[in-house]
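FORM 7B: Structural annotation worksheet

SECTION A. Query
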Amino acid sequence: MTPSLAQPTYTSGTQLLGLGVHRPSVIVDNEQICQWIDSSDEWIQQRTGIKTRHRAAEDVSIIDMAQDAAAEALAQAGVEASQLGSVIVSTVTHPYATPSAATELAHRLGATPAAAYDISAACAGYCYGIAQADAFVRSGLAEYVLVVGVEKLSDFIDNHERTISFLLGDGAGAAVIGPSETPGISPSVLGSNGEKGSAITMNASMLSFRDALGEARESGDASALLDDETTYWPTLRQDGQTVFRWAVWEMAKVAQRALDGAGISAADLAGFVPHQANIRIIDELVKQLKLPDSVVVGRDIVDAGNTSAASIPLAMHRMVQENPELSGGLVLQIGFGAGLVYGAQVVRLP
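SECTION B. Predicted structure
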């Protein structure tokens, strides 16, 4: 007779136990941005809502930022790094294909031998990480999971490019997920639409940079490469109108699916934390979802800019700090961006 396989003990619910962030000390305002592009503080604020964005110093890595955010989240959760069963880092700006940022972060925190890996899902990456952490804890694969969204987008921008670069900031946000007697994380809604992948992309690849460098070496003349390195070094680009329309109309449907999956209505929410892509997208989503005035909306973009995978935990952390009475309330979070990818779920605040 074929023996049966053992299964882990399943947990009925999971919850967010702690949040942490790292906000870089360098602040870049719109006046500085306008040194590089033909624009104005008024135009940038009207079109995006952004007044300032944080940028990390040259010697600060995404792992440095992630470590700070993780330390705060662990302390708030009352969980030791050695108790973590998994460390998940969502980022598209780690400069190494391998080893992952997560393995080094786990080592620095003292979480070894926790499972550790990176997610490349851009602005939806944090929501992807929460979905996976929820599944890990409920299935018994891990008791506690650390999820970090972190980006150093300033490494991959051309300051003179005006479709996306002036929007972007750096930072890190982290959450610790653990077991709960009652569900604190709803079923997640995840998806993608690769047909629209070219709406947010890069102007070049590392392969093109390598080829250009090789040609320069062969010719003995690196002046062209040095004079116009942004032609060869990968930097971000976007088709703003395509992204705007997709985010407003399609993401409102995804957000509603997340509410339906959680078995609640918009009136049950204490807060709404969408990806901080553009203040106009945020405001349109609020209208589409018919959120009541009682729902606190995360608008961290005004001071932090668009930080991709870090934007939701950064905005949520700020929401809790500024509105401590929301503790224990339900928040709808939704991420969307390059890929195009999206993810959403309802979570209960620590």
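SECTION C. Observations
The first strand starts at residue 13 and ends at 22. The two ends are 48 Å apart (CA to CA).

SECTION D. Sign-off
Analyst initials: ____
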